[in-house]
Design goal:
The termini are far apart. A hairpin with a 4-residue loop joins β12 and β13. By secondary structure, the protein is α/β, with parallel strands linked by helices. The strands form 4 sheets. A 6-stranded mixed sheet has the order 2-3-1-4-5-6, sandwiched between helices. A 4-stranded parallel sheet has the order 8-7-9-10, sandwiched between helices. A 3-stranded antiparallel sheet has the order 11-14-15.
Length: about 375
């Protein structure tokens, strides 16, 4: 009997050891072409810097381009889960493509760490959203910073420009719920699509409403279009953007006409300018040393940072051999999701995160600092 007990224990140990060191397959879906390519490309560059193994597991990575298209994203997710047998998906890059793959995530029981910012990806936390996690902070955090800035500078009239997607709609809805508390009224709201050739008619309506400030909720280089048009037509009020435009391509496209814009962003963007007391500074600088060491000075992108943070999330979930079932199985994917929900006070390049079964984002207000576009770059604005 002792022999049988020892044999059973040995077999159990061998199974656990096999699970601990089995390969993990990671699928990555990014917008490498299409309107959101400026977001997807730095994320791909970062994935290429991932180590070959994490927490004792060799990782196999497959990257697919969804061309910024929801249908293509769904096709990519089905391919990754059916053919590549992935244990987890990182991406997509934007809200519409992330929403598109939710059903695949639920059907296959595959956790998804999306780089998109739309709150609709994880709210309400039911059905397919149980498998979705998102890296950017909730819309409330940056909007509170913007409205605080307006209150301090005695601005009371706000125009909102929202891209025609779930990303823009969520920001618009959250802004409407917050403005009264800050003594701000929304004078006009306008929508646009990333592929629109002109913003002229919307700009005229905004100017007619005479706002003190304009808030633009858009992603990537298309977010420059409204600001450029308003500037050319003489708008001199404050302009606020979101961190979804924070990349070098936006600065290139916008040029001098986006100078002065304010945006709440991840501390990563201005890591060197942060005070040493900032919780994120060291982790962010370590990532930037690696990324810019390969891709050049000031090549940084928040979406690249989020791709790195996704890896840190997976690493945290797997540390100490906490998932004791073999990868490549439904049990492993479920265990990985459950472990992600238990992450506490994880410091990454974007902020500090504490997740739970009811919160699949978990970023606190350390995930955002205010930045101004100045002299073709990003300038940290000291809190007041």
């Amino acid at each position: 009997m002792k022999f049988i007990a020892h044999l059973a224990a040995a077999i159990t140990a061998m199974v656990w050891a096999s699970a601990a060191f089995a390969d993990i397959n990671i699928g990555v879906i990014l917008s490498l072409t299409g309107p959101a390519a400026s977001l997807g490309i730095p994320a791909r560059n970062t994935v290429e810097l991932w180590p070959k193994e994490i927490a004792g597991h060799k990782i196999n990575v497959t990257i697919l381009d969804d061309a910024s298209d929801p249908g293509a994203a769904t096709t990519a997710a089905r391919k990754l889960t059916a053919e590549n047998k992935v244990d987890v998906i990182v991406g997509p890059s934007i809200t519409p493509t992330s929403l598109a793959i939710m059903q695949v995530a639920e059907e296959t029981g595959t956790p998804v760490l999306t780089l998109a910012g739309g709150g609709a990806i994880i709210e309400p936390m039911t059905g397919p959203r149980r498998w979705m996690f998102k890296m950017p902070p909730s819309e409330v955090i940056p909007l509170q910073m913007i409205l605080d800035d307006m209150r301090r500078s005695k601005k009371t009239k706000l125009a909102i420009v929202a891209v025609g997607s779930a990303y823009g709609q969520t920001f618009l809805d959250v802004a409407k719920s917050l403005v009264e508390k800050y003594g701000v009224s929304i004078t006009v709201t306008e929508r646009f699509n990333p592929t629109d050739p002109s913003f002229a008619s919307q700009a005229l309506k905004i100017l007619a409403a005479a706002p003190d400030a304009v808030f633009i909720a858009a992603t990537g280089t298309p977010g420059a279009t409204p600001q450029i048009e308003l500037k050319r037509r003489g708008f001199v009020g404050a302009t606020y953007q979101t961190q979804a435009i924070a990349n070098s391509d936006f600065l290139r496209v916008g040029g001098k006409e986006v100078e002065g814009a304010l945006l709440p962003v991840s501390p990563l963007l201005v890591a060197e300018q942060l005070p040493d007391t900032n919780s994120v500074k060291t982790v962010a600088l370590n990532y930037l040393k690696m990324y810019e060491g390969k891709f050049g000075p000031q090549s940084r992108s928040l979406f690249g940072g989020m791709a790195w943070d996704s890896l840190l999330f997976i690493q945290a979930a797997l540390k100490d051999g906490s998932v004791k079932v073999a990868s490549g199985t439904p049990e492993f994917r479920t265990a990985l999701r459950d472990r992600l929900e238990q992450i506490k006070d994880l410091v990454v390049t974007q902020g500090v995160y504490t997740l739970s079964p009811t919160d699949h984002n978990g970023a606190d207000d350390r995930s955002q600092v205010m930045v101004r576009i100045e002299n073709g770059g990003w300038r940290y604005v000291e809190p007041k």
